[in-house]
Design brief:
The chain has 325 residues and is of the alpha/beta class. The protein has 2 domains: 189 residues, Bordetella uptake gene, domain 1 (D-Maltodextrin-Binding Protein, domain 2), CATH 3.40.190.150; 98 residues, D-Maltodextrin-Binding Protein, domain 2 (3-Layer(aba) Sandwich), CATH 3.40.190. The chain is built from 12 helices and 9 strands. Strands 1, 2, 3, 4, 5, 6, 7, 8 and 9 form a 9-stranded mixed sheet that branches. Strand 5, helix 7 and strand 6 form a beta-alpha-beta unit. Helix 2 packs across helix 10. It is globular. 42% of the residues are buried. The mean pLDDT is 90.
């Protein structure tokens, strides 16, 4: 009997050694073929912009094609499902953000793939404050004008978002709640949310900086406040919400994920490559110009960040009464 136990233990130890060697070999040779990064949203949004920049830099670094594939749908759940069911070999990754990862597990009663369980956080890409923007045709040029407009048009206010339960929706909800504003939420699909805003059919929107800064520069949208702790370097004249008396400070984060079950050495290799990219002066400068604050983290730090963020948003989602379409 003892001999059988010893044999089983020896076999288990031997298999673990083989697995360790296999993982090490995978890490040493990775990548050997094209890598696909699934983006949970439509092209042109902030997640897509970040994925393409990081993907391009990874392709240059590793000398293999990095293909960006947009899989928008079901509030970002479609992309999550695709990567959650993928092989944990590092060749199918996910670029996602706060909505699908931190909000959807509470928003939806059931998910085909729980991002808090089936995904491996690999690397934080950055944080971005929300910008409160209005159409230039509204005649609002600053916060004071905006307040006056909301008082004059108190019975006809609305705000758009990139979908029910997204960060844009929930920040808008928190804003109207804290300012006692009666405004109707109008959800859209992904980056399409700014279309009707620019056309003047929407009163305001909380949008991520990279998605609206080009429209601000083109004079199509007017920024009246930002949700960050301090003013943005790209919009230095725009006050924070705290400065104008609204107790609301928040940001939207973006990150890179893989399927759960990836080897520690593979996780480390991908993380270190992304951190190196984010800390390079050229990329950092480019992202800063877009309003993105790159935040390099180890995979362990990012995993902890994601878990804490989920715990923070869960009660807010419940309080908002948001229901998926």
């Amino acid at each position: 009997m003892k001999n059988n136990v010893y044999i089983r233990l020896s076999i288990a130890l031997l298999l673990s050694c083989f697995s360790f060697v296999a993982f090490a070999q995978v890490s040493a040779t990775y990548p050997e073929k094209p890598i696909k990064i699934i983006v949970s949203f439509t092209a042109g949004g902030t997640t897509d912009i970040l994925a393409r920049e990081v993907g391009n830099q990874l392709s240059i670094k590793w000398k293999v094609p990095v293909i960006i594939e947009n899989k928008a749908g079901a509030a970002g759940n479609l992309g999550t499902e695709t990567v959650g069911h993928a092989s944990a070999d590092g060749y199918t990754l996910l670029a996602s953000s706060i909505g699908p990862i931190s909000i959807n597990p509470t928003l939806f009663k059931s998910l085909a793939v729980d991002p808090q369980v089936s995904l491996q956080p690999l690397a934080m890409l950055g944080e971005i404050p929300s910008v409160l923007v209005v159409p230039s045709t509204m005649g609002v040029n600053n916060w004071k004008d905006f307040v006056q407009y909301t008082k004059t048009n108190s019975n006809n206010l609305n705000y758009s978002s990139t979908g029910i339960g997204t960060a844009a929706h929930l920040v808008g909800y928190l804003f109207t709640h804290k300012t006692n504003m009666d405004a109707t939420h109008i959800p859209y699909k992904g980056a399409e949310a700014t279309r009707d805003l620019v056309a003047g059919r929407i009163s305001f929107m909380f949008a991520t900086a990279p998605s609206v800064i080009p429209l601000i520069k083109a004079g199509q949208l007017i920024p009246v406040a930002v949700s960050s702790k301090k003013r943005m370097s790209t919009l230095p004249s725009v006050p924070t919400l705290s400065e104008v008396g609204v107790d609301l400070t928040t940001s939207t984060w973006f990150g890179l994920f893989g399927p759960s079950g990836m080897s520690p050495s593979l996780i480390k290799k991908i993380n270190e490559a992304v951190v190196e990219i984010l800390t390079s002066s050229d990329v950092k400068s480019k992202l800063n110009d877009l309003g993105v604050d790159p935040i390099p983290m180890s995979s362990a730090e990012f995993t902890k960040y994601v878990r804490n963020d989920y715990s923070m948003w869960a009660p807010i989602v419940k309080a908002s009464g948001a229901k998926p379409e």
